[in-house]
Specification:
mainly alpha, 71% helix
């Protein structure tokens, strides 16, 4: 199973990465490895674009009927069977398949995991023996590395974590995990559609007691903090990949969903901007 995973996903991605690196090195681009990781991440993001778009469009439809679902929860409180029937009926009326967003995610996960597994190897290719092992992943012989590449990116070693660099670089290195957490927060916040203002005390209470809504709001804080902590303990090369992936995710979500959950904040910063 491991060989199949490597042959289908890891090795093709490794070959593309080394090809990008060799091209940038030929053009004498400084920090070639770091920029290769960024370019590779962008390529992967474009490959996944149709799948992610399908997922986001499904999410947009679900957000559009969220107020109606909230009313159904109030109307059929205590009758889970009736609530399920009416919710499915509502989805059918609006042409929504609740499972439509799951398949793209399942397809994306192996590709993202392969890229993650590869980068763990990439940022540590700094000796001849490791170069030899890494070259086994590259399909095209002419692209294989002849020597270890420079794993620094603007002076920061891509194979080292911010936690290990804190004693030498100082507090400024904390900008890496902080930026990672902030980007992830924005991405997560955009996916959350603002709840409609309750029109009655019962509706307000229903919103407060809605487990899904409460879990979503808690995840909005917990998940970015968790990603930020991982960024602090994992190598900078992985943070570089994750931040590039997240930034392009923000751009894609804006194209499809608009500002989403950030619309209230944007309207406060720019009074002339209407909610999207």
């Amino acid at each position: 199973m491991g060989d199949l995973f490597n042959n289908i996903l890891v090795r093709p991605i490794a070959t593309i990465l080394v090809g990008i690196y060799q091209l940038l090195s030929f053009l004498h681009v400084p920090n070639a490895l770091g920029f290769s990781i960024i370019i590779l991440t962008i390529i992967i993001r474009f490959i996944l674009y149709p799948l992610i778009s399908t997922q986001l469009k499904s999410s947009k439809k679900l957000q559009a009927v969220a107020p109606h679902v909230a009313k159904l929860k109030i109307k059929h409180k205590g009758d889970s069977k009736k609530l399920q029937e009416e919710t499915l009926k509502l989805y059918k009326e609006h042409g929504i398949n609740p499972a439509a967003g799951c398949l793209p995610v399942l397809i994306q996960l192996p590709i993202i995991w392969a890229l993650y597994a590869l980068l763990q190897k990439v940022v540590n290719v700094n000796t001849h023996s490791i170069v030899s092992d890494f070259n086994k992943l590259v399909y095209i012989n002419s692209l294989k590395l002849t020597s270890a590449w420079n794993t620094n990116f603007f002076g920061l070693p891509l194979g080292t974590s911010p936690s290990k660099l804190f004693s030498t670089v100082g507090p400024l290195i904390l900008l890496v995990p902080v930026a990672t957490a902030v980007f992830q927060f924005f991405l997560s916040k955009m996916l959350i559609s603002p709840l409609p203002a309750p029109t009655s005390p019962s509706e307000k209470k229903a919103q407060e007691e809605d487990f899904a809504n409460a879990f979503q709001q808690q995840s909005l804080i917990i998940f970015p903090l968790m990603i930020g902590f991982f960024s602090y303990t994992f190598s900078i090369g992985l943070s570089l990949y994750w931040n590039t992936f997240t930034i392009f995710g923000i751009i894609q979500q804006y194209q499809i969903l608009g500002w989403g959950g950030l619309s209230d904040w944007i309207s406060k910063l720019k009074p002339g901007v209407k909610k999207i």
